[in-house]
Every structure is written in C-alpha cells, then in structure tokens.
Write a structure and sequence with these properties.
Helices cover 0% and strands 54% of the residues. With 121 residues, the protein is mainly β. Strands 1-4-5-6-7-10 form a six-stranded antiparallel sheet, with no helix packed on it. Strands 2-3 form a two-stranded antiparallel ribbon. The radius of gyration is 19 Å and the shape is elongated.
Length: 121
C-alpha cells in the first residue's frame, strides 16, 4: 500500500494572495494498493491506483462544461498472468470510473482506456 499527499499551498502570488494560474492542483492524493504473487504462481500480481487532483485552473465561462478544468478522480488497475515462467500477460485499465475531466481548459482527457501488455524477462 502507498499513499502520497501533496499540498501545493505555495503556488500563489504573494502580492495579490491568489493562486498562480496553471501551476498544478491545489491538493493531490494518490492511493495505491499492490499485490505481488509468488514467482511459482500463474498469477503475477495486481494493483489499483486511485488519484485525486484539485482544480488546475480557475473556472472560465467560454468553454463547454466537459472541457473545463476541474477537480477529478481517476481509478487505474492492472492484473498480470504468467503464460510461461519468463512470459507475463498484463491487462491494464485506465480511468475505470470514466470521469470526464480536463487538466487544462479546452483539452478534455479521454475516457476509459485499456491496454494489453506482453512481457518477457
């Protein structure tokens, strides 16, 4: 298990006491759970990562709602299977909750995505 918490309270203009635009989220957390199987197992392991980010930029009124930057949470997961002692097939899923968000105004991120990885040692 891992937990990362970042508070970017220093990303502010000290003259106006306002946040500096585009300097990352105010608050960011990442929770990760990972299981690693024994080398003799057919199951290679699995993991899940939950990422939560605060809003990057102040809200604007001239972009569609789904392309406006806002706070978001994504859930990514993977599971690996040993096809042979030195070959592993891994299936990965990204943004599994299909959260619609934009890190920067006007540039929406893709929805749910999947990847299949074949690895040899």
């Amino acid at each position: 298990m891992s937990l990362d918490v970042t508070n970017l309270y220093r990303a502010q203009d000290l003259d106006t006491q306002t946040r500096i635009v585009g300097r990352g989220p105010v608050f960011s957390t990442v929770l990760g759970l990972r299981y690693v199987a024994l080398p003799s197992s057919r199951f290679d392991g699995a993991g899940i990562t939950i990422t939560n980010n605060g809003q990057f930029e102040p809200p604007v009124t001239f972009v569609p709602t789904n392309t406006e930057s806002s706070a978001f949470t994504t859930v990514d997961a993977y599971a690996g299977f040993r096809l042979a002692p030195s070959m592993v097939l891994t299936v990965r899923g990204y943004n599994l909750l299909d959260d619609r968000y934009a890190v920067y105004d006007g540039f929406p991120m893709p929805g749910t995505g999947f990847a299949v990885e074949l690895r040899s040692r």
